[in-house]
Design brief:
Length: 341
């Protein structure tokens, strides 16, 4: 058995896929999640894939006493992967304090307890949202951070700064900040995937629900952007590829002595796809049509952004490998499974 890792938000979308990859790599996993945006049944899906049920603590990371008890009851945690956060951009504009309180207090509590419990490192879920609308694409980690356009985005910027300041102050920990581009898809087993509550705000869950007839049609938000087909461009990354990067990152922190105390990596494919290209890919991969129409632009949308993932490729030895059509097939298999339930 390898080291013990605490995964906060481990029953969530990216967290659950990461727990699977950690277990596949031999790590012992403890999850804490308050189930504010996930379901405890996700543990069944994880167990169905790996044959191992992770230790699960239902609790809130904003409560430092809950975390302290968790560390006391599960001695020997060496690393943390911190997914726990609220993540809906629109909601964060309506309820900024909820976002600042949840996302920042969670991080501060974890950082506070790490030295006391001998936890060596923390991998943090950041986002390409810190780059805002890029001046050029692809974008690498040296690009300037732009003023955040939502309280959610601001929590990611502030979190990165909190980690950097804490380590600068001499805290005996290391951190890797992972800036995700657009995570999509599901585990190929269809045992776990994304479970949006209510009407999906993100493209792929909306698209698969429209294809399944749960939504009348997908609205493509704008076709008059300065892009080849007029729709916005993103770097869509398969969630299993993304999960694997976390295993590499935590291993790097725990096993490698000669690395910087804080490192930042973009996690993307390096390829930008438009909304219309993504719809094409889905239809090609599944043979299922996506009812859609062109609508107005969505306020605040970035026109185009895709990653330069060279640093992650070279330093972490990680590459996003799942072809987009495969990702679309997996997203559809997951949607079909959820619809049947
Ligand atoms: P998710 O909502 O599916 O997972 C987050 C999990 O954290 C949920 O299970 C939720 O119940 C839990 N949680 C929230 N607050 C908590 C708290 N105070 N204590 C304990 N558990 C708590 O989201 P996700 O898509 O898996 O995202 C994971 C992380 O990645 C988040 O930090 C998110 O901001 C970041 N991220 C996500 C995306 C994306 O597009 N999905 C992109 C960039 C960054
Ligand atoms: N889109 C549509 N119709 C929809 C939903 C989305 O056309 O019904 C378009 C958007 O306009 C955008 C693209 O699909 O061009 C992707 O939109 P998402 O909402 O799926 O993703 P975003 O890039 O807007 O934002 C997401 C997360 C953010 C995160 C960011 C970067 O919501 O939290 O990725 O990781 F910061």
């Amino acid at each position: 058995m390898k080291d013990k890792i605490l995964v906060t938000g481990g029953t969530g979308y990216i967290g659950s896929h990461t727990v699977v990859e950690l277990q596949n790599a031999g790590y012992d996993v403890v999850i804490i999640d308050n189930l504010s945006n996930s379901n405890v049944k996700v543990l069944d899906g994880i167990e169905a894939i790996t044959g191992i049920r992770p230790v699960f603590v239902e609790g809130d990371c904003t409560n430092i006493d809950v975390l302290r008890k968790l560390f006391e009851a599960n001695p020997g945690i060496k690393g943390i992967i911190n997914f726990a956060a609220s993540k809906a951009v629109g909601e964060s504009v309506q309820k900024p304090l909820l976002y600042y309180r949840n996302n920042l207090n969670t991080l501060i509590n974890l950082l506070d307890l790490m030295p006391e419990f001998g936890v060596k490192g923390i991998v943090f879920s950041s986002s390409c949202t810190v780059y805002g609308e890029p001046d050029m694409n692809p974008i690498d980690e040296t690009a300037p951070i732009k003023p955040a356009t939502s309280p959610y985005g601001n929590t990611k910027q502030i979190s990165e700064e909190i980690i950097e300041d804490y380590i600068k102050s001499g805290a005996p920990i290391k951190s890797i900040l992972l800036r995700y581009f657009n995570p999509i898809g599901a585990h190929p087993s269809a045992e776990i995937g994304e479970l949006p509550l209510g009407v999906p705000q993100n493209l792929v869950p909306y698209l698969t629900q429209a294809a399944a007839g749960i939504r009348k049609e997908l609205t493509v938000f704008g076709n008059d952007y300065n892009t080849p087909d007029g729709s916005c461009i993103r770097d869509y990354i398969d969630v299993v590829d993304l999960a694997k990067a976390h295993v590499i990152a935590i291993k790097r922190i725990l096993d490698k002595e000669d690395t910087d105390a804080v490192e930042i990596f973009n996690l993307g494919t390096g390829r930008g796809l438009s909304v219309l290209e993504l719809i094409d890919s889905f239809e090609r991969a599944t043979g299922v049509k996506v009812p859609h129409k062109i609508g107005e632009r969505r306020a605040g949308d970035i026109e185009k952004i895709w990653a330069d993932p060279k640093k992650a490729n070279e330093v972490l030895g990680w590459t996003a490998g799942v072809p987009i059509d495969e990702t679309m097939k997996n997203a559809w298999a997951w949607q079909c499974k959820v619809t049947q339930k």
